[in-house]
Amino acid sequence: MEKINLTFAFTLTILAGLSTGIGSIIAYFIRKPKYSYLAVLLGFSAGVMIYISFAELLKEAIDKIGFTTANIFFFGGFIFIAIIDILIPHSYIAERVEEKKADLMRTGLFTALGIGIHNFPEGLATFASASTGNVRLGLAIATAIAIHNIPEGISVSVPIFYATGNRKKAFLYSFASGVAEPVGALIGYAILLPFLSPTLISGLLAFVAGIMIYISLDELLPLAHRYGGEHLALMGLFTGMAVMAISLWMFY
Prior knowledge:
Layout: H1 3-17, H2 20-24, H3 35-65, H4 67-87, H5 90-93, H6 99-130, H7 135-164, H8 167-192, H9 198-249
């Protein structure tokens, strides 16, 4: 690979991954927390994760490695995050925080974990496609990833802000979840890329889809219902799915 290709590829990967910071800035514009707003935003985050998991990640894996293999990876991801959920006690996550806020903090941290894992293989994919020298392909993939990273940043920053009241902490956790993308690119370049097969990349995407679905169904939607009822949660869910559908449609 030429040096110019590597520089271009890594620059695109950094911009795409750190666009989560744009979404996380939303915490700075919330002056007085209202749980009705939170319900919509949590529903929105769930809509983003559910839609992208089924419409993009799992679908691509099935197309590349087949229905059975893709679903093995998918349910493997679901079980993986469920085990983590069971092993990490509530009191450890948010010590000295009231119970309701502890649930939100836990949700924000799990969402950050899911997005961080999600962004890792995306970083590899963005870097690999851009480093081929195909500028149009690299820009298209990086832009699509950046667009859907923005609402993902919201999904991390909002629960943490509502739990802690700390805008800086909400921003930093959300921003950090996007760092996994350029980290994935660096590891891919230094170690994994020469050995990474399309089959393994597709399997990782299905694995991440399972993680995102678990987080949405076990964490985001139940909290959205608790704080705003089913109608606000559904409104947010629909809006999140619609935003992701439009962002993906732009590149079809």
